[in-house]
Design a protein that fits this description.
Length: 232
């Protein structure tokens, strides 16, 4: 079973959704047969590499939201994140363009470290106030993940993996993704948003049963017991 997850590093619900999905996957009896692939998405590709302002400023000025509305939203999302063991600090979030961070995730995927790269970027952005658009930070993270220094440098000296990011975003548009996180199971089932773990569990079980139907073998009239007793 293959699960593709379109997600943005700068999306607070994407981190919450990741935790809820992981909770369901941990209890899924066939989890060892599940392949998870993170796909790139940008909520706002127009953000400059470095935005001179806070997350509240960004949402108020660029998105036209009232500061009071933004503050209430922060409180609600922070509370939801806390329920998943996450400690959001919106007052420390550094607003930055996530494009290069997505390229780093693709590089990590090439070395079998996609999930840990995604996890670190989300945590560093929402819990630790790191600048996900900063070359020094991304280079340090890549080295901590054990990625080759030359490959990391190539991200900043050229456009490697840029087309992969654009392809992910274009594919999301083609299949009708309008918001993230968005989960696609075997290109058959789609789940939008940070659904409760129970919903992910239901989707995983249904997809598995349909892909692996039980085949009856032998005679249908063999002796058996039922609600009305046993055959004599």
């Amino acid at each position: 079973m293959k699960i593709e997850i379109w997600s943005d590093v700068a999306c607070p619900w994407c981190y919450i959704g990741k935790r809820r999905f992981e909770s369901a996957l941990a209890d899924f009896p066939h989890r060892d047969s599940v392949e998870v692939q993170w796909r790139s998405y940008q909520l706002d590709p127009s953000i400059p590499e470095h935005y001179d302002g806070t997350e509240l400023d960004y949402l108020s000025e660029r998105k036209g939201m009232a500061p009071e509305q933004v503050s209430r939203m922060f409180e609600h999302v922070t509370e939801q994140a806390k329920g998943e063991g996450l400690n959001y600090r919106f007052d420390a979030v550094v607003v930055a363009n996530s494009f290069t961070a997505h390229r780093l995730i693709h590089l990590a995927a090439a070395h079998g470290k996609q999930d840990v790269a995604k996890e670190r970027l989300l945590s560093d952005h929402f819990e630790h106030g790191k600048d996900i658009g900063n070359r020094e930070y991304l280079t340090g993270l890549g080295l901590q993940l054990g990625l080759p220094a030359d490959d990391i440098a190539e991200l900043f000296e050229g456009d490697k993996y840029a087309e992969d990011v654009r392809r992910d975003i274009a594919e999301a548009r083609a299949i009708g993704v309008t918001g993230v996180p968005f989960f696609v199971i075997d290109r058959k089932y789609g789940l939008s948003g940070a659904q409760p773990a129970e919903v992910f569990t239901q989707a995983l079980n249904q997809a598995w049963q349909e892909a692996n139907p039980l085949v009856a073998v032998g005679s249908s009239d063999a002796e058996a017991c039922g609600p009305d007793g046993c055959a004599i």
